[in-house]
Hints:
Blueprint: E1 5-10, H1 21-30, E2 38-43, H2 67-78, E3 81-85, H3 95-107, H4 115-119, E4 123-130, H5 139-151, E5 155-163, H6 174-182, H7 194-205
Parallel strand pairs: 1-2, 1-3, 3-4, 4-5
Bound molecules: flavin mononucleotide.
Amino acid sequence: MSTRRFLFLLGSSRDEGHEGNTELLARRAAEQLPEGVEQEWISLTEHPLPEFVDQRHDSDHVRPTEGAAGLLLDATLAATDLVIASPLYWYSVSAPTKRYLDHWSGWLRTPGVDFKATMAGRTLWGVTALAHEEFEVADPLYGTLHHTAAYLEMRFGGVLLGNGSKPGDVLNDTAALARAKTFFAQEAPLARFPYETETETETETGAGAGAGATA
Ligand SMILES: Cc1cc2nc3c(=O)[nH]c(=O)nc-3n(C[C@H](O)[C@H](O)[C@H](O)COP(=O)(O)O)c2cc1C
């Protein structure tokens, strides 16, 4: 797959037609993508997934071909770069975003999809808006996305954060808008769980020396 294809998954629960802060920030970042990079934008509230049912350990999974699940599975498989654009809700991703990620657990078991092998090496990015001005409160969202990327052996480009409460507020966060300009140009290393990174450092350098020698 030579052409990069970005899939933006919009996770705000605002009413249709209300462009929220997360989407505004994501669009600022996307404006900087080079020509030739394909973009697809899907609102998870306009295409609501059914409640996820955990059938991992019983019946056969059938590949969804219709409705939101069919649309989102196909779009996910077609993307080289997945952008989770979710506002910060209770310090983590929004419910529609979480439900989308829960469906990955079903797709991982769906015959003929090869979800894990397909996702491996692709890149996960995050964009979020939050009312809090101290961005470390978004650490749980960061951890959710980073560890999800590690589980799928994906690359992780980090999370672009912007401050705002009501729609449009994020446009006053000039530091966030500046970060948006270069966000997608950043390196996206393979995500590793913290314990894997430690093991690799020890293996590569012996006895824990050489801090920073990670993937
Ligand atoms: C259900 C809900 C939970 C929220 N939880 C947080 C939170 O934990 N921390 C925070 O800083 N802001 C929180 N907010 C504020 C939103 O993150 C903020 O309004 C953001 O700009 C919304 O993004 P949007 O405009 O893209 O929808 C919450 C808002 C809602 C509706």
